Amino acid sequence: MSKKIEDILAQCIEDVKAGRSSIRDCLDKYPSMRKQLEPLLRIALEIQEPPDIKPSPAFKVRARVQLMEQIHAGQSVTKWPWSRYINQMKPILYRKRFSMIATIVAVVLAVSALGGGAAYASQGSLPGDVLYPVKLGTEQARLVVTPSDLSKAELHLTFANRRVEEMVALAEEGQSEKVNMAVNGYDRAIGMAIGKIDEARGKGLDAANISELVAVATSNHLSVLDRVMDIMTIVPVPEEAIDAISHATEVSINGYKNALIGLAGENPVRAMEINLAAMEGRLNRARVKAENNDIEAMEAALAQFQALNEFGEEISAIARRLGKDTVALDELLAKATAIHLDILAEVYEKVLEQAREAIEKAIAASGLGPPDDVGPPDDVGPPDDVGPPGDVGPPDDAGPPEELPIPGGDGFRR
Amino acid sequence: MHKEGHAETKSGDDSQLVAKAISRDPEAFGRLYDMYVDRVYRHVYYRVGNVADAEDLTQQVFLKAWQAIDRYKKMASPFLAWLMTISHNLVVDFYRTRKERTYLEAEVMVADSASSPERIAEARFEQQRLRRAILQLRGDEQQVVLLRFIEGFQFKEIASLLNKSEGATRVILHRSLVKLRHILEREKD
Lengths: 414, 189
Description:
The complex is a heterodimer of chains A (414) and B (189). Chain A is mainly alpha-helical. Chain A is built from 16 helices and no strands. Helix content of chain B is 74%, strand content 0%. The radius of gyration of chain B is 17 Å and the shape is globular. Chains A and B meet through helix 1, helix 3, helix 4 and helix 9 of A and helix 2, helix 3, helix 6, helix 7 and helix 9 of B.
């Protein structure tokens, strides 16, 4: 029986794509079908894979955190089959960790007493609300039933995100006096996330991914906390609330550095990318503050930029110590420095003479040499080996629409 | 750029993670997300042609996959191919709810291995024509063409996904190419 055209076509496509034959070979083999076969074969071979379009790193991290949050939220304790729940508890019973069992029992009892919807309703509650303890209780229960250190770290990070969202909501609703509870929760969640990452690493597990998540998230938190602070400076709030947000900012920076140091040991290039993007975030804040003539805030942002710049040197040092290839790091640094200098030049233009000293220091920190070398903005250009600003693109693996991931991007916009 | 049969090698690597994810292990599913988010995004982007919708749909693909992962158990196709099917269904749904078809005009990027700017522009134009034609095919036809030529899956894997025989899948491919030819010729006229 003669072969059908669909089989011949499929075979010819396979053979030509695999380089086993040419279009002509194929057509010569089936001369009677040549007329039908040729145009179809040409169309099939013309369809090309698109180039390696990739989502932006910022999207990937944000989507992952949201996905995990939705997954964990879907595994509400009230919906879990009891057999599975009891199985999860076995090792806990064995270790006699009664406090955790007590937490679960308390939460289950509370949820039963308040009705199944209470746990769900509590998810939108804020510190000071009646249902807020239920929200915290369900979080604890989720932690108890989460098996590994890495999953726990991710869950703590999810809770840290929630605490930051609560701080924003409280500030926006004019309830800043209640922010302290959210800040304490944030401090605890970030500390626990870092602790669990360390534990996992101690057990020889690959923690690069979660370290990256924590670094990007805390960098986002820093921008969101700036916003909270901005709101608080518009509306008079108790001194304690300002102190609390300052403390949250410190926690965020420490969490960020801890996570990045961990990541630098495993993937220094990615660690450097994140740090450079965070530096750019600080510069953008400085630019906005310069535009608003808020010199104090601009100087604070520039000081943070310099601190992050120094931290970048630590990342490079870790990479060198571990014998990693530092060429990619140097290239990244050169590109980012050009971008940073452009922004600094813009800021320089916008501020009055007396505020320029802070910018000159930041320019010096960017690696252009002592401030004396730097003239007015027009003289501030990229290093010779770096192309014009328009050529400064994203890292090679980033897809459209690409830019260096800007952690301050859109983390928790409400 | 991925190679032919890429999906098969990948599926070998991911089998343990997939097994854990089926037993509702979020961490394992997170690792699968890390492995495949780029491929799913690329596939969706090709079909919707803009970043905002591609991001939104990519997120939905993984959430749906987690919700329906029990159903993957019985399938012989690679996990990535299954994700592609979820992507396909979501994209079809996405277009069902919108009337405008501006996505057809979205720019197709081409690898700039071409020798000159003129050649790159020409290649881009050709790929744009082809993409526009492919997106006019019927659901299963479009899926077979995309999975075979854009994603590099084998007929056996595509057949398993579509719940059809390999022979039937080849028939769909043949029919799709004939239609593509007509669409392209009509466009020329």
